[in-house]
Write a structure and sequence with these properties.
There is one protein chain. The protein has helices spanning 11-19, 23-30, 58-70, 99-113, 140-157, 185-194; strands at 34-35, 46-53, 76-78, 85-93, 119-128, 132-138, 171-177, 182-183, 200-204, 206-215, 218-228. By secondary structure, it is an alpha+beta fold. It has a single domain (11-228), classed as Cyclic phosphodiesterase (Cyclic Phosphodiesterase, Chain: A, Alpha-Beta Complex). It has a 5-stranded antiparallel sheet with strand order 3-7-6-5-9, sandwiched between helices. α4 crosses α5 (140-157). The longest helix is centred in the middle third of the chain and has 18 residues, at 140-157. It is globular, with a radius of gyration of 17 Å. The two termini are 31 Å apart. 39% of the residues are buried.
Length: 231
């Protein structure tokens, strides 16, 4: 996560089905044998991104806090509650786009989002990848629509931007693994104890263009433009 997330078995899987999560994503988490250090993988140090942010989501923050307390372990670095986010799409590396172009992307984002209405989402079904734990978010349909619209906005300014990936498993990461070759069994056990927690609900009213920086064992992002959906 950071880029990928999933749902778990039992009650979580049925809830994930309602959310529109992919069964293959759920299977990947439960088939993990070892965990890996998320921070060891290569990645951009600075980039511009399209996010959903959750500064006005006390229900989600409470859910994340309960999950983080249950998985408290030196193996995981928890995500700060004021940094929770859902990544929709990457715009460009920080040094590959000018400030004028970023302003143009934001303006294009406003135009495309004016065609979209706010929609409700549900966040639940804790699971993860070899490098992170996170909560699945759905329904996937309106999130895909918003993601595609924002990519359209980006592409209108940056025609050379890479095509939108077909794989999209919307999630909110809550912790990143900081150690290599750790047995996954402990993470599986922790996640099973949290499957019955009630999901958090909310309404998406805006997308946010952010300046993202990857630091030592954490991500720090700065909101640059909040793009409202049509009310």
């Amino acid at each position: 996560m950071g880029s990928d997330s999933t749902a778990g078995p039992g009650p979580g899987l049925s809830r994930a089905a309602v959310l529109g999560a992919e069964a293959s994503a759920a299977e990947r988490f439960w088939q993990l044998d070892r965990l890996h250090n998320h921070w060891a993988r290569p990645g951009l140090r600075r980039s511009w991104q399209w996010y959903l942010t959750f500064e006005n989501s006390p229900e989600l923050r409470a859910l994340v806090a309960r999950c983080q307390a249950a998985i408290a372990d030196d193996v995981y670095d928890p995500v700060a509650l004021d940094s929770l986010h859902l990544t929709l799409d990457r715009i460009a590396a920080n040094d590959a786009i000018t400030s004028t172009q970023i302003a143009a992307v934001a303006a294009a984002g406003r135009r495309v989002c004016a065609r979209l209405r706010p929609f409700d989402i549900t966040t639940g079904s804790l699971a993860g990848t070899a490098g992170a734990l996170g909560l699945a978010v759905g329904p996937v349909g309106p999130l895909r629509q918003l993601r595609a619209a924002l990519h359209e906005a980006t592409h209108s300014v940056l025609p050379t931007a890479p095509p939108l990936s077909a794989r999209f498993e919307p999630h909110v990461s809550i912790a990143y693994c900081n150690t290599d070759d750790v047995p996954a069994a402990q993470a599986h056990t922790a996640v099973r104890t949290l499957q019955a927690l009630p999901a958090a609900t909310g309404t998406v009213t805006a997308a946010v263009l952010v300046d993202l920086e990857r630091r030592e064992r954490t991500y720090v992002w700065r909101p640059v433009a909040s793009i409202p959906l049509s009310s």
